[in-house]
From TrEMBL:
EC primary class: oxidoreductase
Keywords: Oxidoreductase, Signal
Domain Peptide methionine sulphoxide reductase MsrA stretches: 87-231
EC number: 1.8.4.11
Name under which the protein is recorded: peptide-methionine (S)-S-oxide reductase
Length: 276
């Protein structure tokens, strides 16, 4: 019974974390990543103090964006033998990647940035909302095991294709909805599926369907982020049953706090592009 209660609490907490979306966890990670010397315990000391928390230097600096024609070149990477590429933008790439990883016949997934104006963008660049990159998942699939239509079905079911440059609370061009095709065949199927999907929806679909352009793989810590959750304690769909409850609580409260301080509040003030 105690075990069940713990499980339920873990589940509720996980759902809440999920609800807070990508930026909360990203923020936590960025805080931990950008300052190697700053430990979790150090941050926890600062938790109660609002004035110090506002002085995080990385919140305000905006990197200079240099446009480059290279970014507009086609994606010339080559998939593994017998495989094909497919590419989708459907909001925060973490969850989208996890969903595609679970499809039988999908042999490889990578998250990255594409369709923007600058060469080799970093996550920070993309989050300025000035590079026009979309967060995408580039999928490799074996066409004998899995059809492109299956991938399209997942794409439509995975997000809201009717909101321009946003998914829920995540706002900015990086969260736009798009299908980036590699072959004329993919383009045809994508356009047909959009038409079919439109019949099911009242609001107009705003997803773009464009040729795949140069793919910039995202920073290593973004790759397979949610499926690596066991390691970092943020697995999206599996509540961490075996983890001591106080630890889970601590992580959750910390994430909520970080989300509140750096995400939600600033987002209301229109600064979200610097903080996600
Ligand atoms: C981390 O600590 C080391 C040694 O104390 C120091 O040399 C380094 O500059 C510090 N790095 C940061 C980012 O503060
Ligand atoms: C992000 O940029 C797009 C154009 O690229 C713009 O339409 C949108 O309003 C911007 N969003 C925010 C939150 O600034």
């Amino acid at each position: 019974m105690a075990r069940f209660g713990r499980w339920v609490i873990s589940l509720l907490l996980s759902l809440y974390i999920n609800h807070l979306r990508c930026f909360t966890i990203t923020r936590t990670l960025t805080l931990l990543n950008t300052s190697p010397n700053r430990s979790l315990s150090h941050l926890s000391i600062k938790m109660g103090s609002s004035s110090t928390a506002q002085e995080e230097p990385q919140l305000v600096d905006t990197p200079a964006i240099v446009p480059s024609p290279l970014a507009q070149e086609p994606d010339n990477d080559v998939p593994a033998p017998g495989n094909q590429f497919a590419e989708f933008a459907a909001g925060c790439f973490w969850g989208v990647e996890l969903a595609y990883q679970r499809i039988p016949g999908v042999t490889e997934t990578e998250v990255g940035y594409t369709q923007g104006i600058s060469h080799n963008p970093s996550y920070k660049d993309v989050c300025t909302n000035t590079t026009n990159h979309a967060e995408v998942v580039r999928v490799q699939y074996d066409p004998n095991e899995c059809t492109y239509e299956t991938l399209l079905d997942l794409f439509w079911s995975r997000h809201d294709p009717t909101t321009l440059n946003r998914q829920g609370k995540l706002v900015g061009a990086q969260y736009r909805s798009g299908i980036y095709f590699y072959t004329p065949e993919q383009e045809k199927l994508a356009r047909e599926s959009l038409e079919n999907q439109q019949k099911k929806l009242e609001k107009k679909i705003v997803s773009e369907i464009l040729p795949a352009k140069k793919f910039y793989k995202a920073e290593e810590y973004h790759q397979h982020y949610l499926s690596k959750g066991e390691k970092s304690g943020h697995a999206q769909t599996q509540p961490s049953i075996g983890r001591p409850l106080f630890y889970q609580l601590y992580v959750t409260l910390f994430e909520i706090w970080v989300g509140r301080r750096k995400g939600c509040k600033r987002m209301k003030n229109g600064y979200s592009i610097h903080t996600t």
